[in-house]
Design goal:
48% of the residues lie in helices and 17% in strands.
Length: 300
Amino acid sequence: MNTLPSVLRSALPSGDGPGVLLRAMGRLEKSPRADRLADVLRGAVRALPLGAARDVLHGRWLGHPLHPALVQFPIGAWLSAAVLDLVPGQRRAARLLVGAGLVGAVPAAISGWVDWAELRRPQMRVGLVHAAANITGVVCYACSFTARCRGRHLRGRAWGFCGAGAIAAGGAIGGHLAYRQAAGANHAEQVAALVPPGWHRLIALDDLSPGRPRRIPLGEVTVVAVRTDEHTVRVLAERCTHMGGPLADGSVVDGCLVCPWHGSTFRLEDGWNVTGPATSPQPAFETRITDGQVHARLAP
């Protein structure tokens, strides 16, 4: 249990000024100190018998990660409780909000851990500290709720403000994870802007082996082409929308392409993400064969 605080202390740089948090997170991304713990936790999360609920928790049905949406409820409840703690005569309402936040923190935490287990190593390292800060906040709010129920309102308020500080720190680290490290972002969003309009010659049809993905450059991006039968070729953007995994190194299963990194499955016909953890479909291309050459253009 002492691993994460020591990792965070070693990551903190000396001195003040702009970029202190950024430098701290940069050091944390490179620190392997908590990797053993991360591997144990990742194995435990992946072993959970969630079935189809795993994709629900990822937010595949929503089109983007579910975790950021779920955290709004407990954070909102706790911030509202902090405001009411400053208003006379609002003890009961504040206690209700603290308890509601604790209830809402459960699904938010579960979805967060499910997403975390499918991240790259540097993101997992930062994610552990993000989780540690949030767990600290939840513990503080649990102590706050207990104290309030026992009539110790001053102590309950104190625990509540401590919890708000911990949650704020967790939010700052979560912002770095989402916006600096692009955890949960669509890693193929730029394809539409980089692919020139119109048809583009990719490769000779005879150079494609049936059922074997082939990596092909197309302007500033890379695509993956799969020959599905004698006269049909399917083309998708080559980098997985989830974490940028190389789909050309993946496998073709039942008309779908499976990412080799985290197992996201995309339908070759239209790029639809059949299973997660990817929450965004893969950019797909229309194809035609002219004089033995495969041509492609980005599908509208």
